[in-house]
Design brief:
Pfam families: Peptidase_S26 (PF10502). It is found in: Membrane. Its main location: membrane. It comes from Nitratireductor basaltis. It is a single-pass type II membrane protein. This protein has 249 residues and is of the alpha+beta class. It has a single domain (37-247), classed as Umud Fragment, subunit A (Ribbon). The chain has helices spanning 3-35, 141-144, 235-238; strands at 36-40, 54-59, 91-95, 103-110, 115-119, 122-125, 128-129, 131-138, 150-156, 162-167, 180-181, 186-190, 207-208, 212-222, 246-247. The strands form 3 sheets. Strands 1, 2, 3, 4, 12, 13, 14 and 15 form an 8-stranded antiparallel beta sheet that branches. The longest helix is centred in the first third of the chain and has 33 residues, at 3-35. It is globular, with a radius of gyration of 22 Å. The model is unreliable at 3-8 (pLDDT under 50).
């Protein structure tokens, strides 16, 4: 084989490798944009449903697509295409309205036109108290972030969706609010950790439908103690095997 042949083979090999890499990156971009996006839980606002260190897949097509479906949210178009409205009780990822570079995850509580209010820790929707039942206490600090037992209440929304909420304090600032009227094209979001959640009661405000990114579906990995999934040596002590491949309720 001549030097020229070797040079051509080498160039061809580099070109093929580059082509494979580019195709793989494009496929990953399509999957992330149109199908699924991985998301890690950064705070305790959705405890006990979601914990810091949970890694989950968000279904991108659930609510259709907006500019926020694309990386870096380029202003290519406004509104949503192939849109589908979220259901009350969905756990949704959305862009923080005051700063769309930030991702938030909360539960959809109020739909357009709803009236939402908290009275003495009780959720009211359109003037009706949401069913709320104390189901016990949690003493696991990995779930509650507290060193004492925490009361757990089971809420059931008017459409039948049920989930657990934490009650860290009987008289927190979010237990009594004004009545919020959700505007058209917006949603009211709340965290399940009611006394430790920055949500639509506070600085989040009403979330425009354009800011919706997708619906949380399944936890595919979970690790405690602030460990990274790449720290394999911490898996024996910090991995939460009971949370792997759990559906998000």
């Amino acid at each position: 084989m001549s030097v020229a042949d070797k040079s051509r083979n080498k160039s061809g090999g580099i070109g093929e490798t580059a082509s494979v890499i580019i195709q793989a990156l494009l496929l990953a971009l399509v999957i992330r944009t149109l199908l699924f996006q991985p998301f890690s839980i950064p705070s305790g606002s959705m405890r006990p449903t979601l914990l810091e260190g949970d890694y989950l897949f968000v279904t991108k097509w659930a609510y259709g697509y907006s500019r926020h479906s694309l990386p870096f949210s380029p202003p290519l178009f406004s509104g949503r295409i192939f849109g589908s409205a979220p259901e009350r009780g969905d756990v949704a990822v959305f862009k923080f309205p005051p700063n769309p570079s930030l991702d938030y995850i909360k539960r959809v509580i109020g739909l357009p036109g709803d009236r939402i209010q908290m009275r003495d820790g009780q959720l009211f929707i359109n003037g009706e108290a949401v069913q709320r039942e104390k189901v016990g206490q949690i003493e696991d600090p990995d779930i509650t972030e507290m060193t004492r037992p925490v009361d757990v209440y089971r809420e059931t929304l008017p459409n039948g969706v049920s989930y657990d909420t934490l009650d860290l304090s009987p008289n927190s600032i979010g237990d009594n609010t004004r009545e919020f009227v959700v505007p058209d094209g917006h949603y009211f979001m709340m965290g399940d950790n009611r006394d430790n959640s920055t949500d639509s009661r506070f600085s989040v405000g009403f979330v425009p439908e354009e800011n919706l990114v997708g619906r949380a579906n399944i936890i595919f990995f979970s690790i405690a103690g602030g460990a990274s999934p790449l720290e394999l040596w911490r898996w024996p002590s910090e991995l939460r095997p009971g949370r792997l491949f759990n559906w998000v309720d």
